[in-house]
């Protein structure tokens, strides 16, 4: 049993999650990978091909699609929301740019349970349109799912297709991510790892998006909704270590991964989170130029170009219930141990 499997098996025994899958890779090979546990408590054992609800790891994948549209000339990072979406020209969100949405500097608030008062798609989109800004655009970093809901709408308007079709054509197909999907079909749902029993829906959520705002939006949204097997996240991480495998040119890839929030409290690229000095979700082991993203359901992808490593950790840490207190330490320990596989010298 590897050090990573040992760590995750111990966490599973403590019921932090029922299942986990992981990989630590270089650009060309896998150093450690595996899966363990059950799709839900008392359910079938994992076989490694399961679909995982990526939650907010959806955001950088949608961000990639948006940046491909930018490189194609269908959008510009400086384009403003008021010019791109009907109904936004006379709102306080009119001057927000595509780049600010990608870097979470739009001024829009963070996690907002809009579904509680806006139970239909039109109502929820109107709730996003009327959300009060918490900061002047460009002046502060606040992680905002509402901002990525808007990015999904912008991508559809600029690309002339639905968001799921754009992600498939611009990201999944070029990179060979054959299992990446919004709204899995019945066959794929049968292989999905469960998240939690949702009292709002009154059933165990399996193969349908966990995020309630995304449910109201039909399961296809810029902030959440993607599912994928471990193999696809591993392939995506390797592609990022190779500079994107050509889906973005070198200049656009560098623009995506550089820090766009210098002078502000948190490090953010375009669609990606940088390594924050304080309270990083992956701890201090990855290098200062590393980047990645986490998901509420217990998923993450983190890329460390300096060490030449990509780390994927997929769990259902919301099963059987939402308990955020114990999982962060497991994720930090995972990255600490993963750094050793690459010959790094992680912090104690």
Structure description:
This protein is an alpha+beta fold and 348 residues long. It has two domains: 3-58 and 178-341, DD-peptidase/beta-lactamase superfamily (Beta-lactamase, 3-Layer(aba) Sandwich), CATH 3.40.710.10; 63-163, no CATH class. 33% of the residues lie in helices and 15% in strands. It has helices at 3-13, 58-72, 81-84, 98-102, 121-129, 145-159, 163-175, 186-189, 212-216, 230-241, 250-257, 327-341; strands at residues 19-25, 30-37, 52-53, 181-182, 194-198, 203-206, 226-228, 273-274, 291-295, 299-304, 309-315. The chain has a six-stranded antiparallel β-sheet with strand order 2-1-11-10-9-8, with helices on both faces. The chain has a three-stranded antiparallel β-sheet with strand order 3-7-4. Pfam families: Beta-lactamase (PF00144). This is Class A beta-lactamase-related serine hydrolase. InterPro entries: Beta-lactam-related (IPR001466), Beta-lactam/transpept-like (IPR012338), Diverse_Enzym_Activities (IPR050789). Keywords: Hydrolase.
Shape: globular
Q: What is the end-to-end distance?
A: 22 Å
**Share of residues in strands:** 5-15%
SSE order, one letter for each helix or strand: HEEEHHHHHHEHEEHEHHEEEEH
Strand order of the largest sheet: 2-1-11-10-9-8
Give the integer mean of the pLDDT values: 96
The CATH architecture of the largest domain = 3-Layer(aba) Sandwich
CATH class of the largest domain: Alpha Beta
CATH superfamily label of the largest domain: DD-peptidase/beta-lactamase superfamily
CATH overall fold name of the largest domain: Beta-lactamase
* Helical content class: 25-40%
């Amino acid at each position: 049993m590897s050090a990573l499997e040992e760590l995750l098996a111990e966490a599973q025994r403590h019921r932090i999650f029922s299942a986990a899958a992981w990989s630590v890779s270089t650009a060309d090979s896998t150093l450690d990978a595996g899966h363990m546990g059950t799709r839900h408590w008392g359910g079938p054992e994992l076989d490694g091909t399961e679909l995982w609800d990526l939650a907010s790891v959806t955001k950088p994948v949608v961000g990639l699609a948006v940046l491909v549209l930018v490189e194609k000339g269908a959008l510009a990072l400086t384009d403003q929301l008021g010019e791109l979406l009907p109904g936004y020209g006379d709102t306080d969100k009119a001057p927000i740019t595509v780049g600010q949405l990608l870097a979470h500097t739009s001024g829009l608030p963070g996690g907002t349970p809009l579904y509680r008062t806006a139970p239909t798609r039109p109502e929820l989109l109107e709730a996003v349109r009327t959300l009060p800004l918490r900061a002047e655009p460009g002046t502060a970093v606040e992680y905002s799912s509402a901002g990525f809901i808007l990015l999904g709408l912008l991508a559809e308007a600029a690309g002339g297709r639905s968001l799921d079709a754009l992600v498939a054509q611009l990201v999944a197909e070029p990179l060979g991510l054959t299992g990446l999907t919004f709204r899995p079909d019945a066959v794929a749902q049968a292989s999905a790892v469960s998240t939690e029993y949702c009292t709002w829906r009154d059933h165990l959520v399996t193969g349908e998006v966990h995020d309630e705002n995304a449910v109201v939006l039909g399961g296809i949204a810029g902030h959440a909704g993607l599912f994928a097997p471990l193999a696809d996240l591993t392939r995506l991480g390797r592609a990022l270590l190779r500079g994107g495998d050509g889906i973005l040119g070198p200049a656009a890839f560098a623009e995506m991964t550089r820090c766009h929030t210098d002078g502000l409290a948190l490090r953010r690229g375009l669609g990606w989170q940088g390594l924050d000095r304080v309270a990083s979700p992956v701890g201090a082991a990855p290098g200062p130029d590393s980047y990645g993203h986490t998901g509420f359901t217990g998923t993450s992808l983190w890329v460390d170009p300096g060490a030449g490593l990509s780390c994927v950790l997929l769990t259902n840490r919301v099963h059987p219930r939402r308990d955020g207190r114990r999982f962060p330490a497991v994720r930090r320990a995972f990255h600490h141990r993963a750094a050793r596989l690459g010959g790094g010298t992680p912090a104690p």
